[in-house]
Amino acid sequence: MASVTRRSSTGPARRATTEAKIIEATERLLAGGERFTELGVQRLATEAGVGRSTFYLHFRDKTEVLLRIIDTLADGAFDLFSVASPAVGAEGVVAIMVGNLRYYRERRHLLAAVLEVVAYDTLAREVWDAKLQRFIDLAEVWLRGDQDAGRTAPDLDPPTAARVFVWGGFQALANQVLIGPESQDEVVAREIALLMWHGAFRRPAES
Fold this sequence. Notes:
- The protein is an all-alpha fold.
- Helix 4 packs antiparallel against helix 5, helix 4 crosses helix 6 (108-118) and helix 4 runs parallel beside helix 7 (122-148).
- It is 77% helix and 0% strand.
C-alpha cells in the first residue's frame, strides 16, 4: 500500500515537471530562431531531454504544446489588460497599453509562433479566438458602463466597438512587435490607447 500511495502522490508532480520541460524546450527553440512549423516532435523531445514516446505520453502532438503556450501567453496579457478601465483615465490606459506591448515584445518568439500556426490550424485558431474574446467581452463591459452613465455617445454600439478596438488594436500591436522597431513601441502603444480613449469611449481630449 505504501508504494501505491507514493506513486499516486509523486505521479502528478512528475508529469507536470515533464510537461514543463517540453514546453520550456519548445520556447527555448523558438527564442533561438526556430519556426514552430519546422520543429518536429523528435527535436522537441531531444531538446527537453525526454524520449519521443515520453513526449506522446504527455502531449497528443506538437500542436497541443502550442495550445498550452497560447494559454499562458494570452492569460498573462489579459491580466495586464484587465486592470484598464475608464476609471484609470487616458494616461492610465496609455500606461497599461505600454505594459501590454512590452509584455508581447519580451515574448515575441511565442507570439510569432502562435500567429504562424493559427493561420492554418483550425483548433489553434479557435482557442486563440476564444482567448481574444475575453478581451472583447471586458471592453464591452467598460463601454456599456460608460454609456449607461452618460459619459459616451448613446449611439455607440458597445459589442461592435469592443470588437473593432480589440481586433484592430491587437493587429497594430502584433505588427509593431513582429516587424516594427522597438524604439517606436511606446509611441505605437500610446496611439492605440488614445484611439481607444477618444474613439471607442468617445471622450473629449480635455477629460
